[in-house]
Amino acid sequence: MGKIKRRINGHLYIYGHVTEGQVGENTYFLDTNAFVLHPPLHPEVSKELNLAFMDVWTNQVNFLEKIEKVGFDFTANIGMQQRSM
After folding, report:
1. 69 compared with 47, residue with greater pLDDT
2. Which residues pair with 34 in a beta bridge?
3. Chain centre distance of CA 1
4. 60 Cβ contact partners less than 8 Å away, ≥ 6 residues apart
5. What CA–CA distances, in Å, run from 46 to 16, 40, 64?
6. Nearest CA to 27 among 39, 37, 19?
7. Is the pTM of this model over 0.70?
8. How far apart, in whole angstroms, are the C-alpha atoms of residue 3 and residue 35?
9. What is the spatial distance between Cα 79 and Cα 69, in angstroms, rounded to a whole number?
10. Average pLDDT over residues 21-41
11. Of 5, 20, 24, 28, which residue is the least packed, with the fewest Cβ within 10 Å?
12. Strand, helix or coil for residue 26
């Protein structure tokens, strides 16, 4: 991973907001955007990377309130693992 990080020398930024709605059951909606900040690239390469990123990035994720705890436990465990490294 370090080799990739050094080669790209970029940073990923994710931002957005959470809303709660009713779709049969209480549902959370995560509306997100993201961008990668990196050194200047040839315009054609930049365009290709942008299109590839847009193909894999989703701007909205939703999940039921009842599975929120499962997600919370999952992310809490990830945080604990990262701290122990």
Report:
1. 47
2. 14
3. 18
4. 29, 30, 31, 32
5. 23, 8, 37
6. 19
7. no
8. 21
9. 15
10. 86
11. 24
12. strand
CB 25 within 8 Å of CB 64: yes
**Mean pLDDT on 50-59:** 89
Distance CA 1, CA 54 (A): 22
Q: What are the structure tokens assigned to 18, written together?
A: 């959470």
Residue with tokens 């999952």: 74
Distance CA 11, CA 35 (A): 8
Q: What is the dihedral of CA 52, 55, 59, 61, to 10 degrees?
A: -130
The Cα 58–Cα 38 span in angstroms is 21
25 - beta bridge partners?
23
Question: Whose structure tokens read 């955007």?
Answer: 33
